[in-house]
Amino acid sequence: MTTTPAPSPAPSPAQHPSDLAASLKGPLPSDPNARLALFAFRRMGAHGINDAAASATLLQAFGAGFRRPLVLMRTMMADLAHAANCPITIAPCCCLRLTGSETTVLTILARAETAPDSARLLLGDLIGVRRPDGVLASITLLAQAFADAGRPISF
Questions:
Q1: What is the pLDDT of residue 25?
Q2: Is the confidence at residue 24, as pLDDT, over 90?
């Protein structure tokens, strides 16, 4: 007579983390300007480029000069979505850690003006495109808009 082993209980969520949890690479940036850009990036990535919360946050942060960073953030998001050949992982706004894609985007924003060759290579790897110059131009303009408003992004 053979006996079959009893089925094991279903694994708990802690034993099998979600794909998102496995992709979280690091903590939120300490720079408030990088956190501001990250918030707008996450909101527009999840809710569309016309997200009211992202617009209101940029209005509050930049005051009367909010239009330039807002339009350039929308442009960057549209360019990334149009040009990307691979997924860009975005965590929820309440998440206290960064995905690898978010880390790369913030690094590109921080390096766009000071190390454009490095930013170009990172962007090409992120979106899977050999010549990402059009997208890099919109990212560089966004970084310049933040810096011109006294909010340079450092990461």
A1: 77
A2: no
